[in-house]
Design goal:
The protein has about 140 residues and is α+β, with helices and mostly antiparallel strands. The chain contains two helices and eight strands; from the N terminus they run αβββαβββββ. Strands 1, 2, 3, 4, 5, 6, 7 and 8 form an eight-stranded mixed beta sheet that branches. A hairpin with an 8-residue loop joins strand 2 and strand 3.
């Protein structure tokens, strides 16, 4: 898989799960594609990023395979003062779509919760989902 195929696989998993969402109109912010205007946003939203961390050659053949390592950053974003319940609801809903799943050549590992981060009047409640994907030249 190349980088764009990895991104597309993640988007496909998120969008398939989003189609099952019931409740407020849900915006999903994808890095470089959909950017939420936090000045006008009226509901909690989801922020998704694919971060590349490392890579390695995985065999010694004439055309060796290469493995890319990274993380999917999935954050439920709620306005300051709204509390954590809405963020937990979003994470609980979307985490199963990515947690310990495989699709094509993309292998997603167990989700890791991390500390919430305040930013411009909003709190980002992230989980990190490590992944690896192999490319064959």
């Amino acid at each position: 898989m190349n980088r764009e195929q990895i991104r597309q696989a993640v988007v496909t998993l998120i969008e398939a799960r989003r189609a099952q969402w019931v409740g407020h109109p849900l915006v999903v912010e994808y890095e470089g594609q959909v950017v939420v205007d936090t000045q006008t946003q009226q509901h909690p939203f989801l922020c998704v990023k694919v971060i590349y961390i490392s890579g390695e050659q995985v065999d010694m053949g004439v055309n060796p395979n290469h493995r890319t390592w990274g993380q999917v950053h999935l954050a439920a974003v709620v306005k300051d003062g709204w509390g954590v319940a809405q963020a937990n609801t979003l994470i609980d809903f979307f985490q199963p779509a990515l947690h310990m799943r495989s699709t094509g050549g993309l292998r997603l590992w167990g989700a890791r919760p991390v500390k919430a981060v305040p930013h411009l009047g909003w709190h980002y409640h992230p989980i990190l989902i490590p992944f690896d994907a192999d490319t064959i030249p």
